[in-house]
Amino acid sequence: MDLTLHTFWDAPQLDQALACFVASRLREALQARGSASLALSGGKTPAGFFRRLAAEKLDWSNVLVTLVDERWVDEDSPYSNARTVRANLLQGEAAKARFIPLFKPASSCAETALLVAQDLAELPQTLDVVVLGMGEDGHTASFFPDSPQLQAALGDATNRACIAVEGKAPVIERITLTAPRLAACRSMLLHITGESKWGVLGQAVAQPSHELPIGLMLNTPCESKHVFWTR
Description:
With about 230 residues, this protein is an alpha/beta fold. Helix content is about 35%, strand content about 25%.
């Protein structure tokens, strides 16, 4: 498992370094191909990183942004990952980026996943940057160890970019990009904070298993894999 570790004194230092790193990879993509793609994780941890990334000078109009996963809620909900992205990243010049959210109103989460999969067909075959998060149970994206759909999410059962899965409260129903779709990237980054998550990551890296899905993701082939961590 070839990982590059980046450690920092505090969260603001990490956020700035991660923003600079992601921006550099997006600039490389823009220069090489005229466009760039970025898949982001939600939750509370990345808000500071999003704000710093928004301040980076980029040709945002040619950057395509989507989410790694989403809770089955509309953007009025405080649990919406899209809401966090819009409020913290898609501001100023960065508002010119093309954003593909993972929620659409439908009769069920499964139907939403089908609709969203059509939108995600716009993504390039290889994503430029994927930024993952991790829970203290070792889940990443919405790959939860005890989810009935874990195997389907880790595999390519539907041949679609995303599927509906069951996660944990407060919002159990979720849409997640599949592991093969996320692994098809040039740079895979893991953004985590705290001693407890550091311990979980150590276990996952030492022995990748379905009990700690982040280990399986970090064990997939990718051009570059990095961990950004602070206490």
